[in-house]
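Subject: sequence -> structure tokens, single chain

Hey, anyone have a minute? Need the predicted structure for the following. Not urgent.
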Amino acid sequence: MGERFTLRIDDWITLPERKRTLNLHLFKEIAPWYDIVTKALSLGRDKAWKRTLVDFLPRDSAPMCVDLACGTGDITLLLAGRYRRGKIHGVDLTPQMLERAAQLASAENIHYSRQDMCMLNFPNACIDIVTGGYALRNAPDLDQALEEVSRVLKPGGIAGFLDFSKPKDRLIQRLEYSMLRIWGGFWGLLLHGNPAVYIYIAESLKRFPDRQKLREKFRSHNFELLQSQRFYFGIIEILIVKKKI
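Reply:
Had a minute. Here:
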């Protein structure tokens, strides 16, 4: 991953452009291990959570879907299977992730492209469904990403997100942060010789809005909450929101 990751994560995560650079280098390093490590970090539950996310989505016959920060394409492929007559766009900032997705999760109705979730290359109000697995927490600028999701969704369009969830209680926040640092640091050291690779999860969550503030952000960007479900003792949450008409 190079010398830049001997620096403190704080040096790279606080400003949008630096976080964008961090994501490019971090997920380039992670790409070959991504499916293995998500399974390990979730104790084998990651795929079940993603299936639940897709099950919560509407039963449209042929929607236009965008999977943000698609990674190796697991949610993208689930969307392609659910909406066989739909058009599924998997977008990611990292070329190495897109290469893995094209190898591991291809289908006739899937198209992969390199895009920044803060600057999506889609016209206004053309998308029916947006998804993101561990996407918004990694956005260089969360408000800008939510504005883009709102922009590209049709009125009444649905967005579904799976991510780590931050409680409002400060003590529980500290416990969650410490646990994620220890568990992520172990896998970073084991797989990459560098604990910071997955300690990033804890650091990014530390700067992410808590559950209440995240819901307020959705409302401020013209969304209403339809459904939520938490897993893993509340550490993981699915949120389903609708763009107001």
